[in-house]
Amino acid sequence: MFRYFILCSVLFFINPVIFGQNQEIRLSFEESIQMLDKGNQSLQIADKEIEWAKSEHQRLNAFWYPAISATGAYVHMANKIEVKEPLSQFTDPAKDFIHSIIPDDQIISSILDKIGSYSLRFPLAPQDLTTIDANIIWPIFTGGKRIYAGKIGKTMVSIAKVNKEQISANTQILLVESYFGVRLGQKVVEVREQTFRSLEKHYQNALKLESNGMINKAERLFVQVNMDEAKRELESAKKDMEVAQNALKTLIKIESEGNIRPTTPLFINDSLPSVIYFKSLIENNNYLVNQIRLQENIANNELKIGRTGYIPNIALFGKQTLYAHGIEKNLVPRSMIGIGFSWNIFDGLDREKKIKQAKITKQTLALGKDKAIDDLRVALDKFYSQIQNALDNVSALNTTIEMSKELVRIRKKSFTEGMATSTEVVDAEVMLSKVQIASLLAYYQYDIALINLLSTCGIPDMFHQYSRDGKSEPFL
């Protein structure tokens, strides 16, 4: 918030930038980047994705800690829990002993038979039971699942960060297109206005020459038609610039009615590193390639997790009964602790299928990474070719501009001396404006190709340095 306040202060007082109706807003490219970073919704969404990935990483790390839970239950059973023992197991031995002493005894034996027909009952628990327990389970060995899951969570955070970098690069491309599009539009308007003013002045001279009989009406009309055409092109250029203004304001969240005047000029660089240098950056710096590489890492860890399915899990467990009704301590202990394992011996080949899928995913990502690198190298060749074409056009047009300026000067002088026609003067003026606009467009094409080239290599921040080292548009 403090940085934003400082930025606004700089924009308002130093530049100066006045956010008011019908006032210009002078804005450098660096300042526009700072404003873009503050209000861009795509970057804000990317920040939230990073937060989510970090939260997921923390969730996966939770498997290292014990799980503590509380359980409770009320149970009503159809019958009481009791021990039932028949008394015959005690009376039968007594009868045998009596018969061994008194063989003909009937009385005692009948009494023992009567007693032996009964059973002895010991109640253990009533029909209604209530219990509340605290339970703890702490896995101490999972075959490496937790380690690989933690690595996957960490990689997810890295993917989210790379995604933000890619979004930032894409928004910077849009900013370059919009910012320098406004700069191009303003320069085109200046060229069109200069051409119109020159033709307007030439038209005034043509009227004087016509009144003195030095030129005919047809020549004066030819000048007038071209002057009107120059005015129409000027108005059209102003409308195009207004569209570019609105696009830039929307991108950097400026609601002022004033027009933005970019202070950073269009530029070119006399020399760039070779295309081989830029291609060498793709494999390690490109956002898409890095994302695929990180996804390969996730697939590799998922493969390892699948293989741990053949290993048993070992865990400590414990239980503490906090409250019990109807269950005696001598029957069920209130506290217990132990260690156990679970081993999935056969799961219908589910583990084998998961391992196979992880291998296929890993192989697919490897092929996708190679294809992405090849496609990016082709795209880089395209951008580098566009840069070279723009440099060639600027070099050729610089000479043409100087020649056109000299031609305009000579023909204007010749016209005033009656040695040149209005058509020749107008043609020279129109040619000059065309080559100037073509040169401006070559500068713009160079800048757009350069930011795309740098973004493909994963170094879009270098654009600002190239702009500082480059040569700005030399005329006007």
How is this structure best described in words?
By secondary structure, this protein is of the alpha+beta class. The chain is 66% helix and 14% strand. The protein contains twelve helices and ten strands. The protein has a four-stranded antiparallel beta sheet, with no helix packed on it. Strands 1-6 form a two-stranded parallel ribbon. Helix 3 packs antiparallel against helix 6 (145-211) and helix 4 runs antiparallel to helix 5. It starts with a helix and ends with a strand. 25% of the residues are buried. Mean pLDDT is 87; it is low at 1-21.
Q: What fraction of the residues are assigned to beta strands by DSSP?
A: 5-15%
Query: Could you report the average pLDDT, rounded to the nearest whole number?
Result: 87
Output the structural class. Answer: alpha+beta
Q: What is the number of beta strands?
A: 10
Poorly predicted parts: 1-21
Spell out the helices and strands N to C. HEHHEEHHEEHHEEHHEEHHHE
Helical segment tally?
12
Side-by-side strand order of the widest sheet: 2-5-8-9
The biggest beta sheet reads: 4 strands, antiparallel
